[in-house]
Amino acid sequence: MKKPLFKLDEQVYEGVHGELTESILNVKCIRLKPNNMLLTREEKSVITSEKIEDLAVKLLKLAVTELPPDVKNALKRAYEEETSEAGKTQLQAILENVEYAEKTRTPMCQDTGTIIFYIKAGVNAKGLDLFEEALRKATQRATREVPLRPNAVNPFTQKNSGDNTGRFIPFIHWKLVPGETIELTVFPKGGGSENVCTLGMLVPGEGVKGLKRFIVDAVVKAGSKPCPPNIIGVGVGGGADISMKLAKEALLRPLDQPNPDPEIAKLEKEIYEALNTIGIGPMGLGGKITVLGVNIEYAHRHPASYPAAVAFQCWAARRATARINPDGSVEFLTHKPI
Ligand code: SF4
Predict the structure, then answer these.
(1) Cβ neighbours of residue 182 under 8 Å, at least 6 residues apart?
(2) Ligand 1, closest atom to CA 192?
């Protein structure tokens, strides 16, 4: 059997010698093919376009057919706590629908939403340049195979692309983190809940009091439109774009994980309890449970600005995440793999 060859600064090492060189010097050698040719970009990385595409198709299928455990538990708890008959009937129908979607691996809602990906990319991870194209192909493939309703429309011609892709869609949010792993999250974002997302430039002098009023007003105004019970993501500070970005990211935090800052966690609980006294109820038919949770994220703000954003997520709070390790192995973080 041919031993692998390693190249470092024009010096070629063979087999164990190469591995030892790497560990002693704490460097990464370039792997050579047995015929001494340099490996191609894809061969150097165990993370290939095909692997990323396959993983993203699996994550999309998981996200649209199976809610993450924290959302399922919150819906079950909502059913137990709901006091109105109409609200309980709606929650029962939602829970049955969720169970059926999971059993038959069919989408839990006809609205595909807009396909969004979040990537936490280790700065030393390989294959990052392969993601954009692979995720586009995965979206097209998932549209055919799951199947997903085509939802990407040109805003000027009104023409539907037919495969859930288009200009900037699927949208990819990149975040650089230390290390070599890559965390990929799919987030098919429903249109009904998107339509009521709200941005406000509040009065700085009103502080948290003004913020609470802004959130309650947004939920009251939204009424039944965002298919409640909702998850409310709140982003505060930064600037107009930053607060909305934070509000959206807040929707990705599991419902059983309050903000690590105890003061903000307290505020999340207080607003959650207040919103569940409004009476909009499941699917807006009246009842106790209007929201499943409130997640708040913040950035520091300009002294003269108080930007705040409220992002809505519907009961079909679809998301799925997996981690790709440097050796190419994959861990599913929100679901059991299919
Ligand atoms: S907002 Fe959510 S639940 Fe309502 S139709 Fe869209 S995806 Fe479905």
Answers:
(1) 47, 119, 120, 121, 122, 125, 127, 128, 323, 324
(2) 1
